[in-house]
């Protein structure tokens, strides 16, 4: 491992530790029994199978969202369309989950295929606008989020809504479409295995294929990639296709894994969470899995300390924002990074000279 990668890992760990220390400070300031509250926050999520299951449940959609955003970040793009993709793909897949009649294995596969296509279609709009017309993908993806929310709300209200229920929810899913629980005593479902498979496939694609190499080169230096013969336009469109498909499957996995109906009346928030996960993982697919579990652990801990003590759940929003600020701060630990790189160069020069 070179010193640049080592530094990125150290800075990420530093950010995570700093966020937890801030959590301690918040708990001390607002709690009447701070030591008990800290113990609940840190240790209680790991004390039972059910709580560990809650951590994994929370991590599943984060893995899909983090993988999607990490692909875009790898290409040097800042696209927030995963937020709308999760919602819209869930709507489209739910149509099949409600009315399509297929055997148990084929039905969820059909739902995932439809949601992946829907996610790709949504992501392609900012992708093509960026590749062909150099439109800012962050602006166009945010606009797409509003568009797909409006379309999805119309479909939910006028096509999927179950009139026998007071809340705004869809008809029940076909039981053959639901994902099975894989860990008894919890709600951890087969979507976790699908998420791990996606992480492995993305890793192989990024680091073991020519297309993955082109993505990495384009993200590092687009002009160099273009001069090297890489079709940058094609790379940008392709990475949007992949990111949309992954986020689309993630939206449907969440619906079929934890819900019996489509219940989102607004954007679920996973797209923005994906940015934090990708940054925590430094865009590494396996790092995305670890970062998602870490954030799931924080969220379960915050929920438990809120229910068992007197600390507000808003603390988790503060921690997440702090993590993003610290990781995205280019000057954080900059002087130590410079020293490491200089030392690495000196060692290389010494080896060459000898």
From TrEMBL:
Main location: membrane
Family matches, as Pfam families: BPD_transp_2 (PF02653)
Signal peptide region: none
Keywords from the named record: Cell membrane, Membrane, Transmembrane, Transmembrane helix
CDD domains, alphabetized: TM_PBP1_transp_TpRbsC_like (cd06580)
Protein localization: Cell membrane
Transmembrane annotation, as ranges: 12-31, 51-73, 80-99, 105-129, 141-160, 188-206, 235-253
Topology in membrane: Multi-pass membrane protein
Full protein name: ABC transporter permease
């Amino acid at each position: 491992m070179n010193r640049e990668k080592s530094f990125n890992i150290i800075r990420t760990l530093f950010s995570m530790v700093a966020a937890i220390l801030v959590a301690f400070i918040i708990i001390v300031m607002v709690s009447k029994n701070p030591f008990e509250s800290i113990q609940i926050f840190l240790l209680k999520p790991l004390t039972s199978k059910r709580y560990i299951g809650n951590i994994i449940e929370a991590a599943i959609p984060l893995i899909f969202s983090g993988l999607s955003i990490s692909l875009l970040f790898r290409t040097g793009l800042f696209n927030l369309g995963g937020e709308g993709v999760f919602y819209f793909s869930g709507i489209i897949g739910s149509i099949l989950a409600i009315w399509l009649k297929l055997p148990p294995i084929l039905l969820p596969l059909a739902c995932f295929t439809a949601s992946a296509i829907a996610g790709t279609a949504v992501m392609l709009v900012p992708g093509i606008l960026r590749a062909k017309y150099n439109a800012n993908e962050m602006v166009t993806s945010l606009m797409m989020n509003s568009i797909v929310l409006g379309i999805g709300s119309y479909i939910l209200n006028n096509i999927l809504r179950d009139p026998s229920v007071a809340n705004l929810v869809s008809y029940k899913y076909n039981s053959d479409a639901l994902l099975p629980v894989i860990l008894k005593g919890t709600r951890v479902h087969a979507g976790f295995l699908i998420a791990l498979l996606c992480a492995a496939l993305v890793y192989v694609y990024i680091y073991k294929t020519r297309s993955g190499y082109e993505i990495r080169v384009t993200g590092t230096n687009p002009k160099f990639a273009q001069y090297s013969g890489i079709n940058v336009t094609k790379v940008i469109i392709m990475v949007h296709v992949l990111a949309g498909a992954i986020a689309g499957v993630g939206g449907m996995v969440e619906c079929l894994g934890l819900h019996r109906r489509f219940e989102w009346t607004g954007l679920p928030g996973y797209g923005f969470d994906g940015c934090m996960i990708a940054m925590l993982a430094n865009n590494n697919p396996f790092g995305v899995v670890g970062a998602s579990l870490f954030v799931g652990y924080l969220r379960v801990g915050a929920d438990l300390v809120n229910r068992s003590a007197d600390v507000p759940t808003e603390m988790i929003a503060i921690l997440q924002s702090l993590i993003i600020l610290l990781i995205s701060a280019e000057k954080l630990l900059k002087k130590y990074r410079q020293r490491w790189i200089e030392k690495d160069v000196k060692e290389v020069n010494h080896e060459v000279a000898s």
